[in-house]
């Protein structure tokens, strides 16, 4: 892509990658551009603290992540007869 400001595009790509914006997850295909446009791009040349707050408070992404991880838990060897992560369907928050 040709641009009058290629550095800005590379910096946007860097921070999108830094904050783990991935379009390989179907719900993120719609959310990733919003996060980039609404929370990352406006703060590219500002204070990093301001960008961090904007990214962590971007409500659509925070809500989608919360919904995606509901139901995941840590198994206990005594109770679950295994250790590590496990999915508990009763703890999943459906849409």
Summarize the structure.
This protein is mainly alpha-helical. Helices cover 55% and strands 8% of the residues.
Helix content range: 40-55%
Total number of helices: 5
* Strand line-up in the sheet with most strands: 1-2
Low-confidence parts: none
Strand content: 5-15%
What is the string of helix and strand elements?
A: HHHHEHE
Number of strands: 2
Please describe the biggest sheet, giving its number of strands, its sense, and whether it closes into a barrel: 2 strands, antiparallel
| Helix/strand class | mainly alpha
**Radius of gyration (Å):** 18 Å
Tell me, what's the shape?
elongated
List the topology elements:
Blueprint lengths: L5 H13 L7 H15 L7 H9 L2 H11 L2 E4 L1 H4 L3 E4 L8
């Amino acid at each position: 892509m040709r641009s009058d400001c290629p550095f800005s595009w590379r910096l946007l790509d860097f921070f999108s990658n830094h904050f783990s914006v991935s379009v390989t997850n179907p719900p993120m295909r719609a959310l990733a551009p919003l996060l980039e446009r609404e929370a990352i791009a406006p703060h590219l040349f500002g204070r990093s603290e301001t960008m961090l707050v904007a990214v962590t408070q971007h409500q659509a992404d925070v809500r989608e992540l919360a919904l995606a991880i509901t139901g995941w838990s840590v198994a206990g060897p005594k109770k679950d007869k295994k250790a590590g992560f496990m999915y508990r369907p009763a703890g999943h928050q459906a849409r």
